[in-house]
Structures are given as structure tokens and as C-alpha cells.
Design goal:
mainly alpha; 68% helix; two-stranded antiparallel ribbon; 2 strands; 4 helices
Length: 201
């Protein structure tokens, strides 16, 4: 099977990226609904309209949140769970939002591969936006870990939670960013040479 053009590997990748793009939009919608629902609960609870101690409580009388290490954090009511819920929503927003930008740009990139014209000037722009987005996600990761550490320092670490704030750089992510920077310049130079060749002809 050929790599570029219609019916190629690039066309199948483009279809897969379109499916991923749709799923990310669904995830973003679910995340927005979760954030809206939690804000509504906090607002109604603060106004005294609902009793947070009886709202969405677990069977044992508390809200259970399972951590990445399998431990259950139990709160008396859902309004007390904000030190875990809010950072989780923010992390989800960064991941899904960044994923949408990256997948959308990859879709456009592979659309040009499918058309058999890989060296378009806009492809360099797509790659540049992808590495900038990856860089922003990585910086946001450090920022959110810092905010979460500050929140736990201020309100105390929830029981059964062993926060692991790993500020060490992710080598694979930074290497991917470096590779994309180089590829963006390669595509930009390729597009320039293609344009010069067309003008010469």
C-alpha cells in the first residue's frame, strides 16, 4: 500500500484522526457538564437550597474518590471534595483541549498527505502549532502540580492520598517537541523549494 494519496496509509490515518477528534469533542462536552454540575452543586449548597451532606453521598455516608493508586478518599459530602475535584477538572481541560488542537492540526496535515501534496507551506504551520501546544501542555502540567501542592499545603492533604509531585522533565515529551521543531523547518524549507521550482518552470 502506498504511503501518500487516496487509498493510502495517510488516508486511513486521516480517518482515525477524525474519529479521535470527534471523541475528544465528546470528552470535552462531558468535562464541561461535570464542571457545570459541580459548580451548580457548590452554588446551591452555599445558598442553602440543598443539603451537601445528603447529596450524591456514597453508601457509607461519604463521597468516594478513587486515586490513581487505588486508594479511596472519603469526604463527608461532595462540597468538601473540591481540593481533588477542581484540579482533576483543570487537568482534564488542559489534556482534552490540547488534544483537540493537536489532533485537528494532524487531521489537516494528513489531508494534504492524502491529496499527494505534502510540502505545502501551511503544513509547516500545522507542525509549529503542534509543538507549541505540546510545550504549553507541559508547562501547564508543572503549573497545575504547583497549584495542587499549594492547595494541599493550605487545606491539608486528604486522607489516603499520597501526592506524588514529579517535577522532573519528561524526556520523551521534550524530545518529541525538539523533533517537531526540526520537522516544521524541514517542511517550511521544502515548501519554499517547491514554490521556487514552480516559479522557475
Amino acid at each position: 500500500m502506498k504511503a501518500l494519496g487516496k487509498g493510502s496509509v495517510a488516508s486511513f490515518v486521516q480517518v482515525a484522526l477524525t474519529i479521535a477528534w470527534i471523541l475528544l469533542w465528546v470528552a470535552l462536552g462531558a468535562l464541561a457538564l461535570a464542571a457545570l454540575g459541580y459548580c451548580t452543586i457548590l452554588t446551591l449548597s452555599a445558598a442553602g437550597i440543598i443539603d451537601p451532606a445528603a447529596f450524591l453521598n456514597a453508601a457509607d455516608g461519604g463521597v468516594q474518590i478513587e486515586t490513581d493508586k487505588g486508594a479511596l478518599v472519603v469526604y463527608e459530602n461532595i462540597t468538601e471534595a473540591w481540593p481533588v475535584v477542581v484540579p482533576a477538572l483543570l487537568i482534564g481541560a488542559v489534556a482534552v483541549g490540547g488534544g483537540l488542537i493537536i489532533v485537528d492540526r494532524l487531521r489537516r496535515l494528513f489531508a494534504s498527505f492524502t491529496s499527494g501534496e505534502p510540502f505545502r507551506r501551511e503544513n509547516a504551520t500545522h507542525l509549529r502549532i503542534i509543538w507549541i501546544t505540546m510545550l504549553a501542555i507541559e508547562i501547564a502540567r508543572y503549573a497545575l502540580m504547583g497549584v495542587l501542592a499549594a492547595v494541599f499545603s493550605a487545606v491539608g492533604t486528604p486522607s489516603n492520598v499520597d501526592p506524588d509531585f514529579d517535577f522532573s522533565p519528561d524526556f520523551s515529551t521534550w524530545m518529541s517537541i525538539a523533533i517537531l521543531i526540526v520537522l516544521a523547518e524541514v517542511f517550511r524549507e521544502g515548501a519554499r523549494m517547491k514554490e521556487e521550482q514552480e516559479l522557475t518552470i
